[in-house]
Amino acid sequence: MPSPSLTVVGAINVDLTARVDRAPAAGETVADGVLQRGPGGKGANQAVAAARLGAAVRLVGAVGDDLDGRGIRTQLAAEGIDASGVQTASAATGTALIVVDATGENSIVVCPGANAEIDATLLRIEPDSAVLLQLEVSDAVVIAAARASSFLAVNAAPARPLPPGVLEKCDVVIVNETEYAQLPEVHDVPLLCVTLGAAGARLYRYGELAASAPGLASTVVNTVGAGDAFCAALVCGLLRGDSDETALVRACAVGAAAVADSASQPRLSHLDTYGADA
């Protein structure tokens, strides 16, 4: 299969993750946390996943002029990702504070930092680019990226109404069950993917079921990066010409592999190694 080319537009963070047996209730302190620090942000997570799955990837976003930002640039280069579209902002690099319990469930507080300062006039998306974006960045960035794209995939997370003109540009929208319920306007897009957690995922073309895939059994360690890995796998599969069913099955297999990894950017193999015929 030819390697797809993909431009990912989105948030770039440092993840500070506290792994605990049980997440604290309101007003409660738990003292058994183990702290992990690593790269994250939905944009960076999806870009790294796509690169590890075999795509040629360009990332558009922003980091601060700080140690974290410089470390992220070094990491992106090591992954073979074109980071020429990553701007340097005056704010600090974005940070996510994450609590993950023994079942792999998480709660997250995001401090956007540089992600809130991406200059929408300087995205420099190449003509004829396939773009994958999420909603952790400003409406202005979402609109500019959508206008510049020739193929547009939107992971509508966190859920909010899409800015004017973006829905009409969408080739693919990816949501989970909660986002699906919150965003009825996406239900009739050309291609809609609804993820169902451990139950798998479904694809709808203009509201009609086109494909479904079951979830794969996996040891759940961390769910933080699983949705991002799934999005990258689905979009890469569609871009390289996989059928709806094959692309969905492979994406579910990638998501299952991701939840078994403690990192927000899980270790992944080439896309061809996932799925029923792998």
Note down, in words, how this protein is organized.
- The structure is a single chain.
- With 278 residues, the chain is α/β, with parallel strands linked by helices.
- 25% of the residues lie in helices and 28% in strands.
- It has helices at 42-52, 67-78, 139-148, 177-182, 226-239, 244-259; strands spanning 5-9, 13-19, 34-40, 56-64, 82-89, 94-100, 106-111, 130-134, 151-155, 172-176, 192-195, 201-205, 208-213.
- Helix 1 crosses helix 5.
- The relative contact order is 0.16.
- The model has no long low-confidence stretch (mean pLDDT 94).
Provide a brief overview of the structure:
The protein is α/β, with parallel strands linked by helices and 278 residues long.
List keywords for this structure.
278 residues; 6 helices; 4-stranded mixed β-sheet; alpha/beta
User: Strand order of the main beta sheet, please?
Assistant: 5-4-1-8-9-10-11-12-13
Task: Give the DSSP E fraction (strand runs of 2 or more residues).
Answer: 25-35%
Return residue spans where pLDDT drops below 50 for at least 5 consecutive residues.
Answer: none
Q: Count the helices. How many? A: 6
First-last Cα distance:
13 Å
Q: What's the total count of β strands?
A: 13
Rg is: 18 Å
| SS-based class | alpha/beta
Oligomer: single chain
Helix content: 10-25%
Arithmetic mean of pLDDT: 94
Overall outline: globular
Major sheet attributes? 9 strands, mixed
**Helix-strand sequence:** EEEHEHEEEEHEEHEEEHH
